User: Fold this.
Amino acid sequence: TNPLIDELAHKSRASFNTFGPSINALAAAMWQSVMRDGKPERPLIRISLAYGSKWAELLKMSWARWAAAGIRASVFMAMDEAAVAACVEFHLICVASSRASVLHKYSLATLALHLGVDVVYADLDAVPVGPGNPLETITAEKSSTNGGAVCEGLPDLVVTTQNYDCLNAGFWFARASNRTASFFFQLLDYLHEHWYEGDQRTLNAFAIGNVSVSFTDSWRRKVPRLCVATLSPDVFAGTEGFNDVQEVK
Assistant:
């Protein structure tokens, strides 16, 4: 074999092939959910992205805050050396990738939902606040709609708007089912093919339909209609970016 070709192939796999590490991380998080968080019937994991030294400093605080709310089963997508170093230092469950992309959160969520695992996605600056247990608020939310019609039973997707007109892609909860697994697979497929569309606008277009994206009509036929519930803005807070990590509580 050619050593140069072998080296290039190794670097390519290390950069782009995160499927195996993702499965390993999800398996470890599922164990945490069942054994540590006490959710044997419906495992629940949290996913977050980490990129840059400022955000890497938040990893330990983010894990601790969510663990206090009942979710120790967290998987971080570590997209640079600073994030990977934080993962190693604090023994966190992480998937290392040298290619930073917002799509990683949808890839991990899609894998988890296909495995039957409920998913909370939260940006590192989205933290649970307010009285009571925010985890119970998420999973017990029942007021949901499907294209304007009221749904019966628990919703497929729980979102927050932070008092804006559209849902915030920085925090959502997806209940594992055939519908949500298919929804996120189609969403991810769309975002890969239409890379010029933003993920938040696309998530709004597919989940709620209050905005449009390119080729909406042809893609909506492929996407299952979900029952979507909106959380009170008092349950979660975001810093909208930050200057000092000590200000993030």
